[in-house]
């Protein structure tokens, strides 16, 4: 603990936070759905001794449109300069709905797939053209997708979103012969190479560094949240793939001088690992290299490995809670290999919840239509069995019935059949309305992909990964500010459908 963290807070510095800080630090507050922390596995913060944070899209929440547009344009310009690609590609327009997290790219076929949690394809596009159900069936039959890195690419981080949309545009160009002599697979390799180059040569970073407020959301609750963890006795660490120059800009913008006693972002963290090279960080053996000058206890390092980090922190395994946004590098690997507890940051969560709240009326209407559909099914089934009974009565008792009785039986059967036909017309009308409203709701989330968390009637692969590998998830780190630093996030008991119906 630094002196700043253990000493009582003073009000004499910047005065940025006029609220009652001590009160804020004490206990849970009422939290609305948008800012809530959601629990997939019970987690006692009182057992956690070390809390780690990824930086990009975790501590630093980027502004979606500007950062994605920047990456998209930088990559498109690089691609336009390559042989085989038309120079006009440099002017392509970005569509922020073109791709979402959790999708899978089928590099061989030029398709982008949305899978459900069982890895069945729920929805697919060839380039930007939605595949018909018949095409889907032909190309993917009933098989689940077995992820193969030679054939597939997974959109595990928000950084991958713009490049996948660019790839979809390229597939369109290949199909319309604007781009010639390129396979879908080669086009994907080229897009990846160009975005990597744009990240490496500063095309993206220099713009962010020159103007961080244009690309990164300021969050005045973030420094308070980190401080709150520190006064509760937690050791904090930073574990980022970004280099220290970039961290200086981004975390400097978010943290430097925001709270009394914390002049620099480094003051919040006991250990900071830059250029970590995740996921290699979890398996390599080389120790980290200190960045600080000699004469002081090093706190900022380059590279290294997870064992080395645990040793420096003096905390390991399930005493560590790690916040990250990358499904594979931050959440799956840390949980599986090191038994760290995990907190997934899902920057799009707030928007999803707001849409679901604003569309409550539409969802109520849909619910009523589902009820009407089910009532119709019940009525139709009952009438069909009545008709079957009447027909059986006629066949088995034909000789015993008078012509008048037989005529009455036929009239009754005809009347029931007419009622069935009317109900079936009504049912078809209701199904049509459900379809229209369902599509409307789907498009409200994203015109191409719907909600990130659902795939047909199932949860999406992305939602399934959160449920399987994250202990808690929320929209941003500072949402934790409203909770006690020793909160017991207790998971609700899972019930089977027969227990609730
Ligand atoms: Mg990240």
What does this protein look like?
The protein folds into 3 domains: 31-61 and 216-346 and 467-489, HAD superfamily/HAD-like (Rossmann fold, 3-Layer(aba) Sandwich), CATH 3.40.50; 64-210, no CATH class; 354-451, Helix Hairpins. 45% of the residues lie in helices and 12% in strands. It is built from 17 helices and 18 strands. The strands form 4 sheets. The chain has a 9-stranded mixed sheet, sandwiched between helices. Strands 7-6-5-4-8 form a 5-stranded antiparallel sheet. The protein has a two-stranded antiparallel sheet with strand order 2-18. A hairpin with a 4-residue loop joins strand 4 (104-106) and strand 5 (111-115). Helix 3 packs across helix 5, helix 3 (64-80) crosses helix 6 (184-200) and helix 14 (360-396) runs antiparallel to helix 15 (403-445). The radius of gyration is 29 Å and the shape is globular. Bound molecules: magnesium ion. Residues 54, 56-58, 157, 325-326 line the site of magnesium ion (MG).
């Amino acid at each position: 603990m630094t002196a700043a963290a253990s000493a009582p807070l003073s009000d004499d510095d910047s005065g940025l936070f006029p609220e009652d800080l001590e009160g804020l630090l004490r206990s849970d507050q009422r939290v609305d759905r948008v800012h809530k922390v959601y629990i997939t596995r019970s987690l006692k913060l009182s057992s956690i001794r070390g809390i780690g944070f990824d930086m990009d899209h975790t501590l630093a929440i980027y502004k979606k449109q500007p950062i994605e547009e920047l990456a998209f344009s930088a990559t498109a310009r690089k691609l336009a300069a390559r042989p085989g690609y038309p120079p006009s590609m440099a002017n392509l327009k970005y569509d922020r709905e073109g791709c979402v997290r959790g999708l899978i790219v089928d590099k061989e076929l030029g398709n982008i797939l949305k899978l459900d949690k069982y890895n069945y394809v729920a929805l697919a596009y060839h380039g930007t053209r939605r595949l018909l159900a018949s095409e889907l069936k032909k190309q993917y039959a009933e098989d689940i997708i077995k992820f193969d890195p030679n054939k597939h690419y997974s959109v595990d981080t928000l950084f991958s979103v713009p490049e996948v949309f660019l790839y979809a545009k390229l597939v369109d160009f290949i199909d319309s012969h604007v781009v010639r002599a390129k396979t879908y697979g080669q086009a994907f390799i080229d897009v990846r190479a160009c975005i990597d180059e744009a990240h490496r040569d500063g095309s993206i970073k220099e713009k962010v560094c020159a103007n961080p407020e244009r690309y990164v959301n300021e969050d005045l609750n973030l420094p308070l949240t980190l401080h709150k963890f520190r006064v509760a006795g937690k050791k904090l660490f930073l574990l980022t793939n970004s280099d220290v120059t970039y961290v200086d800009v981004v975390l400097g913008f978010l943290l430097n001088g925001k709270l009394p006693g914390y002049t620099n972002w480094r003051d919040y963290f006991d250990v900071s690992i830059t250029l970590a090279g995740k996921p290699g960080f979890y398996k390599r053996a080389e120790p980290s290299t200190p960045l600080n000058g000699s004469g002081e206890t090093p706190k900022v390092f380059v590279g290294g490995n997870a064992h080395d980090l645990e040793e420096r922190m003096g905390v390991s395994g399930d005493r560590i809670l790690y916040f990250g946004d990358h499904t594979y590098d931050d959440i799956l690997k840390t949980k599986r290999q090191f038994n760290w507890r995990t907190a997934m940051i899902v920057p799009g969560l707030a928007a999803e919840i707001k849409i679901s709240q604003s569309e409550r009326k539409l969802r109520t209407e849909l619910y009523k239509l589902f009820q009407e559909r089910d009532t119709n099914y019940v009525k139709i089934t009952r009438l069909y069995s009545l008709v079957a009974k009447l027909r059986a009565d006629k066949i088995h008792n034909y000789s015993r019935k008078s012509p008048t009785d037989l005529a009455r039986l036929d009239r009754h059967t005809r009347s029931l059949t007419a009622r069935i036909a009317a109900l079936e017309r009504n049912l078809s009308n209701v199904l049509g309305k459900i379809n229209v409203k369902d599509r409307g709701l789907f498009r409200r989330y994203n015109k191409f992909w719907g909600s990130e968390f659902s795939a047909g009637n199932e949860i999406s692969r992305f939602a399934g990964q959160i449920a399987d590998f994250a202990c808690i998830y929320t929209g941003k780190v500072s949402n934790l500010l409203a909770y006690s630093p020793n909160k017991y996030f207790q998971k609700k008991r899972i019930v089977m459908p027969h227990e609730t119906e």
